[in-house]
TrEMBL record:
Belongs to the complex I subunit 2 family. Signal peptide: none annotated. It catalyses: a quinone + NADH + 5 H(+)(in) = a quinol + NAD(+) + 4 H(+)(out). This is NADH-quinone oxidoreductase subunit N. Its EC number is 7.1.1.-. One of its GO terms (biological process) is ATP synthesis coupled electron transport. GO terms for cellular component: endomembrane system; plasma membrane. The keyword Transmembrane helix applies. Pfam families: Proton_antipo_M. It is a multi-pass membrane protein. It comes from Streptomyces flaveus. It is found in: Cell membrane; Endomembrane system; Membrane. Keywords: Cell membrane, Membrane, NAD, Quinone, Translocase, Transmembrane, Transmembrane helix, Transport. The keyword Protein biosynthesis does not apply.
Amino acid sequence: MSSLAQPLAESVVQSVDWLAIAPPTIAAVVGLVVLVVDLFVGDAKKALLGWLSVAGLAASTLMLLPLLDGDRSTFCLTGDANVCSYTADRFTLVIQFLVLGGALLAALLSVTALKDANRELPEGEFWFLLLSSAAGAALLPASRDMATLIVALEVASLPAFALVGIKRGDRKSSEAALKFFLSSVTATAVSLMGVSFVYASTGTLYLTEIANEIQNVDGQLHTLAQAGVVLTLVGFAFKTAAVPFHFWVPDTYVGAPLPVAAYLSVVGKAVGFSGLILVTVIALPSYADVWGPALAALAALTMTIGNVGALRQQSTRAYSAVRLLAWSSVGQAGYLLVPIAAAAYSQDAEKAIGSTVAYALMYAAVNLGAFAVAALVARTKPLNRISDYRGLYASRPLSALILGFFLLCLAGLPPGIIGLFAKVTVFSAAVDAGLGWLAVVMAVNVVIALFYYLQWTTLLFRAPEGEPEKHRVPAPLTAAIALTAVLGVALSGAPQLVLRFSDTGLF
């Protein structure tokens, strides 16, 4: 009996490539450690939890380096090593770098924010939720089957709901978390229905297997497969804040703690776009005639409505800077969708996807930097209104110059060369794919966006109202601003490095 059981066990039990799964695993383990340590440390030592979390995210990011020597896969089908649930290829590593790097910068902002909150925010729970969400976000780009993809998406999203509503007794925070939760749960339910339809049509959950099987779907199941494709895309469109699934963004960003809003603006988008890329380009290339036009229309709507919404955020006391950044992030999501739509029509889909990844890297660096300067202003102006930035150059000349540089990058104007370079690559992807009308829509939206970015930039250098306020800037906040500024300036000096780094190797 034992002789029969041994071969059976060997066929079922798989070896795990621990190095391949190290980045998300370290983030998850450190999150659990932080939660346990929180039970045993007093209030005076709660700050250690923050630095432990920062160290954990830094270690997760550094663990990407040993993976650069070649693709690695694990959790593969027995008897078929090419069909796996987890793959650490070039695309995975680039997105994991974006996600973990973004989470690390958000953690630096959070160290200062939690200290300023004077125990209004529960530190142990905050760090556990942030690390858990980062672990899920790092897992998603490596997922190569629908089940793992959905689980990773929810692991990234569920802690984010709690982070948005973590302010005790804050009505805006609770309302923002509820909106975020209800709309996200609805999108997840729609995605799960879509995945179930695709599984019913193909009989598999593995992305590469779906790509093969869905081309030979029986005629009676063809409509079911098409419905599954559309419903699956709807769920990921919500995560990217694409119109009309964007309505939760402004209130959520304003109601959440500012570092959480910064985290959602970058890491949340990376999760949505990486999932969208995996589903469309790897699993459903034969349905490009379905998702290509849909994503092109979504891109046009998203960038237009996002920029028009941001345009309404005038320099008055009625609107906050965070709300303007929220609408701006919706507009930027439209630009990010353009190359994915272009991949459906392009002869070189890998180049098109590389354009999205390159734009995402640029956006992550400068948008996190803008949020870091917003966190600096919020230390003395808690409402963080647009008008509060008037005369920032008089009190904080370096911070004003850095914020102005970030805004010019987002607008795509010199000296923000990296922003201009990223927009040109996206524009080229649309033109090369024959989507001339989408390129025209993008050009119009770039002009619209110039108004509100330049309006905010000029406000920084106007004469201040009253005496300029000066105060000491905490080291973590200084580090976050400095890191993003150095990265933005360095990439503007050598923008080709972004495109080289973002070579995804998906195909």
